[in-house]
Amino acid sequence: MKKQRRHNINPQARQYATAPPASNVPATQAAPAMEAFSFGDPTPVLDHADIMENLECWLNGRWYEPPISWQGLAKSFNASVHHSSAIHFKVNILSSTFVPNKVLSLATFKRLALDFMTFGNAYLEKRASRTGQTLQLKHSLAKYMRRGKDLDTYYFVSGWQQEHAFAKGAVFHLMDPDVNQEVYGLPQYLSALQSAWLNESATLFRRKYYKNGSHAGFILYMTDAAQNIKDVDNLRTALKDSKGPGNFRNVFMYAPGGKKDGIQILPVSEVAAKDEFFNIKGVTRDDLLAAHRVPPQLMGIMPSNAGGFGAVEPAARVFARNELVPLQSQFLMINEWIGEEVVKFEQYTLEHVEGKAA
Q1: Which of 192, 184, 205, 177 is nearest to 87 (CA)?
Q2: CA 158, CA 68: separation in Å to the nearest integer?
Q3: The pLDDT value given to residue 212
Q4: Does the N-terminal or the C-terminal CB of the chain have fewer CB atoms within 10 Å?
């Protein structure tokens, strides 16, 4: 007979062998823990990278590139009604006091003033005869003008490999001085561009809000046990169909035996948030008018308070003295460059305007 061999089994191994598989062992569920999050760190206004970008204008070998995007300023021109209207207002006042002549026409001066108020730069090209006499001053778009390496030559660059070099000394450059560089001028309203963009964003958001009709600014909370799933599906379908064109429909819900608080509407945001649009429009408007230094009563803005903005005539006189006269003095520098009086302004008075209209 064969002897049966006994195997010595370790008690610990016996325990592992009799243990159930790991997949069948129920895992211990951890209790939900509190989660904390933040919206990011504050962003400094004066970042070192932004300061380095404005230290100088980049020289590409032939001309200097502008310190900021002229195309961006052109697009921002119509970002806010108060921004473009204030610029047009100043241009119209300047044009109304300008005295045209055969060298510089009224249309040319108006385009020159519009460029200067928008970009802080304005350019005039001198067209001379063979004898050197000035025949006419022509306006060149400031958006496409570039200043050469020697600062006396100017280029008209409208696109890739589309450039025109003006004769040296044939272009007059009127610029609003900048504190970081002396190659190009910058407009004085740059600090209010954020307000102009915020005004545009608020208007676009409000427009999309009404156009789409997606007024899902609440949570429909149902706790009534008397409701069945079919009623819930019907209510969900009715709310979905209320979006888009033909919205603002009435939704009827019949809940027999339901409680008073069985169906609740919980706003996602506060009810006062609906007035933020008007607050943003008002604050950004004040910022833009302060940057352009134009009184609101001269812009045709309706006051929101009972006292109003005050009389129009005193505001017009103060604006003419503090804003119009300095602007006129800047355009008079054209006379020093050309050597003759081609820019001349009449005195801006309300009595003179009334008499001229009569």
Answers
A1: 192
A2: 17
A3: 64
A4: N
| Assigned token pair, 312 | 């129009």
| Cβ neighbours of residue 287 closer than 8 Å, sequence gap 6 or more | 192, 195
Query: Tokens 């195997």 appear where?
Result: 7
If 0-12 CB within 10 Å is exposed, 13-18 middle and 19+ buried, where does residue 171 land?
A: buried
CA distance 143 to 351: 37
pTM value is 0.70
What is 26-43 written as a DSSP string?
PPPPPPPPP------PPP
How far is residue 138's CA from residue 127's CA, in Å, rounded to a whole number? 7
SS3 289: helix
* Amino acid at residue number 355: G
Alpha carbon 271 to its chain's center: 27
Q: Does 253 lie in the same domain as 298?
A: no
For residue 150, give Cα distances in angstroms to 11, 59, 146, 172. Answer: 95, 11, 12, 15
**pLDDT, tens digit, for every residue of 133-168?**
888 999 999 999 999 999 999 999 987 778 899 999
CB 285 within 8 A of CB 256: no
Q: Is 123 helix (H, G, I), strand (E, B) or coil?
A: strand
Q: Is 198:190 a contact under the CB 8 Å cutoff?
A: no
**122 backbone dihedrals φ, ψ, rounded to 5°:** -145, 145
Tokens 């903005």 correspond to: 309
The backbone region for 248, taken as left when phi is positive above 0, alpha when psi lies in -120 to 50, beta otherwise, is left
The string of DSSP letters for 245-262 reads TT---------TT--TTS
Q: What is the pLDDT of residues 27-83, one digit of tens each?
A: 555 555 555 555 555 555 545 445 445 456 788 888 999 988 999 999 999 999 899
Please give the structure tokens belonging to residue 305: 């308070």
Specify whether 278 is located in the same domain as 260.
no
Co-location of 291 and 179 in the same domain: yes
Phi, psi of 9 (to 5 degrees): -100, 130
* Residue 58 C-alpha from the chain's centroid: 25
Any domain includes 11: no
